[in-house]
Amino acid sequence: MNRTQQLLEDTRRARLALVKATSEEKNQALTAMAAALEENMSQILEQNQLDLQAAQGQIGTVMQDRLRLTETRIHQMAEGIRQLVQLEDPVGKVLETVRRPNGLLIQKKTVPMGVIAIIYESRPNVTSDAAALALKSGSACVLRGGKEAIQTNRAIVKALQQGLKTVGLPVELIGLVEDTSRESATQLMQAVGLVDLLIPRGGPGLIRACVEQAKVPCIQTGTGICHIYVDKDADLSMALDILNNAKTSRPSVCNAAEVCLVHKDIAAEFLPRMEQVLVEQPRQEGKPSVELRLDEQSARYIPGTPATPADFDTEFCDYILAVAVVDGVEHAVEHIRAHSTGHSEAIITANQQTADAFVQGVDSAAVYVNASTRFTDGEEFGMGCEMGISTQKLHARGPMGLAELVSYQYIIQGSGQVR
Fold first, then answer.
1. What DSSP element (H or E) covers 78?
2. pTM for the predicted model, two decimal places
């Protein structure tokens, strides 16, 4: 038996300790886990530096930012866990009650998933978020991060397990797969009977591999080709602020904008202002500027790189923005439906009728009117931390918080009825 198989079996057994755990006991564990993260901050940062040093020359600066931890980020990780303490326990809620004519009382009640496996890349904050969400929702978790963050993930899991130990829960409730080879990922995808739910968080290659190879239930997450459509009736200053935030505040994340669509009637005015905000101004200030990939029409108004068809189907996760001019909201919706990954899209307009047409026409998990796509996030939606952003429609969609991490069963009370 290899180490990953042993880990899965240990986690499966440990999960039984949560079956009888009360909400208070789970919250005590979460509180202890958050405290342990902060108590072990120096060790976590030390290991993170080792990962960052190994990443030099291997991944770009934007992706290094996803990997980097700071004191502030660790405090935020701990705070995300503490927010879960304040949220209602999702387990044991009666969703429906039906009394049948034959006297049977049927209740539909929420129950834990069991064992949740998460395969993810780069971002070590996912380690604490996933572990905390799983525990609050009554499940054990098996974490498999990328090789670029293995030292950091080890340190984080060690701290979280320390928190579990202080409240008398088995440390095996949080398992870390230390084998970062492709084989270990495949093993999680095919761990029938040991894994109840698999959640991949990463690039298109990882998501595709899980969809094609998984034999356990799998939720697709993450890939975000997010669009912002600037309508002819938009407040252009507002549009610039929103676009700048959506593209540059953190370009490596899945809710960052990758495509800007501009109505033809305002292109001549808006595009030069956009180029000033995204390219010229940051360049003058010594900050990263955005490379604009322009279709033929937008290239008439501003300089940039000629866009290829592939640019409108790429999640750049970088300071790159594909730009196209469209004839109106119908054309914008048509473009988004052809190129979106179903994550987040936004329209900037003062015309409510146009906004309604956009919302009705776009089939993505989150659709914004006059706001940045960067809000597609569990914490921003009031869920505390999140397990990921689901871009599918079954069984969860959008930010996955506690409510999305439970299943349900039917409890039937009888008095001797037979059929």
1. helix 71-86
2. 0.89
